[in-house]
Amino acid sequence: MRVHRSAHVRDFTVLPNGMLQCRRLSFTARGLLADLLSRPDGWREDGRHMADTSPQGRGAIRKALKELTAAGYYRVEKIRRPDGTIATETHVYDTPQLAPPGVTRPVPGRAATGGAGALPKDRHQEPSFPASDVTDHQSAGGQAAEVPDEQLREAVATLFRVIRPEPRLRLGEAEARELAPLVAQWLERGSSAADLAQALLPGLPAPMHSAVAVLRYRLERKLPPAPAVRPAAARYAECTKCHDPVPRSGICGPCAGLVPRPAGIGGGEATTRTGAARARAALRGCGRSLRPAC
Fold this sequence. Notes:
The protein is mainly alpha-helical. Helices cover 40% and strands 6% of the residues. The chain contains eleven helices and four strands; from the N terminus they run H-H-H-H-E-E-H-H-H-H-H-E-E-H-H. The protein has a two-stranded antiparallel ribbon. Strands 3-4 form a two-stranded antiparallel sheet. Helix 2 (27-37) packs across helix 4 (58-71). Residues 100-119 and 131-145 have low confidence and may be disordered.
């Protein structure tokens, strides 16, 4: 077989041979992956539109996407926006990503020097993967300087107590201190050791490439929301003379003679005296009517 290649200067895509020659994937899956990788970053297209614009039907495209997902070339995740809405984000890779994000990340490197027939390409787009995980951890909430030492020690002890039943989650002292700020945030928000165990232990990936990366990913993604701060109830004082509630300590306006005192229930003291006199008169009249006639 003779392979004929053309020298392209624009509108071309560099793809790894390992992806193009992966015999574990069908030709439909590999062709679909090559098509997706040739699109610019931010391209929006769902599986239904892929099937409607290609000779393959929706069943073939759906099967190809499942193959790419299982092989680690295609991933769809749901993210929560700051306004509370849910958005879907699709990731396409030219190398398989079988571990959770943060475990194995390709780093940007220099292009390999080819022979005389190597095709140069002007790479304007910056790599989408960061060079190291340290920057990600610091921007995601690594606040070791802001957490007191006592809380860090408690967080480290809690983390070791939570992961002790799982032999695959063995951490060193330095790794535990690296995760301590995230654990401290869980504890500050009212989470217990049982809550941490429920969030960290079930459904661990196999094989386990990096225990600290898996724990960091779950601690960041499953962090419970901060409790709502309720406004303090307004406090009132009592008047030193009549003991009515007043906004500030001292005497109320009626006792100070600044405003008239409002009438109480029943019409006030004058109404109470009038009513009592009427009641006594009525009782005396009833007594006379009950006397026997002579």
